[in-house]
Amino acid sequence: MWHVHGSYTTALVQGAHEYLLPVLPDRGPNGLGRARTWDWPPSAIEVTPEQARDEDVDVVVLQRRHEEELAARWLGRRPGRDVPAVYLEHTSPEGRIGDMRHPAADRPDLTLVHVTHFNSLFWEAGSTPTRVIEHGIVDPGYRYSGRLPRAAVVINEAGRRGRITGTDLLAKLDVPIDLFGIGAAELGGIEDLPQASLHDAMAERRVYLHPVRWTSLGLTLLEAMHLGMPVVALATTEVVEAVPAEAGVVSNRLDRVRNAVRHLARDPDEARERGRAARRAALSHYGLERFLAGWDALFAEVVAG
Prior knowledge:
Structural class: alpha/beta
Shape: globular
Number of domains: 2
Number of strands: 11
Distance between the termini: 19 Å
Oligomer: single chain
Helix content: 25-40%
Number of helices: 12
Strand order of the largest sheet: 8-7-9-10-11
């Protein structure tokens, strides 16, 4: 599998398998290799295209359209035909409802894996077998101090993604916010923090704000809940399933979102109580054991044919 999504891959490589990750000299998008800012076990192994051809691969995990061609060329085997394959879809579909057809639709030789039930509902897969394996998180531990009466927001490429990630809402909410993520500096935020440092910085803020309009369930939201942070979020995509009422406020009314952030910033005791509820919910539903068990079952199924 390719290193495409750092947080997701961090969880997946914790399983009891060997994970072969293509690496190229430039460590570009098609050859990033092992992560440098996450802690991965030795079973996550870098392989060059030349080495990949000689590897005894049991299953290929595809995540982007062009990876099928790359895998066929580098392995000398066609995914889904000569070697079992699954297509892991991280994102929610874009465009008109009637046009939300997945690129792996009508491929009975593949299994399409969605990370949320919302995504599975909206993507049209045709005859391709589908499975939902909900996110799992490597528990960063309870770190919440909430000493800063501000909201933490984590969005990668916030400027480019704009309305999709609710970047435009940050100024409209008129609440004290610290923005983290790749490209955050161009908007006056903080970027390039290793994961552990990011978690520490998030946990110092009193509340986690999730202003995303339309994307898959953010892993950083689930990490914030694991850290023990109370959540204020838009009631979009899978958020309404992930954040229980006792963990914070979920609403599409900007006045409610604004008031909730302000209230929690002023009330550290309630913020801490709701953050503990968020952590309990996250551990219960988005723990690593359930996540890895789902992948183990799927791997066994596709390899057995």
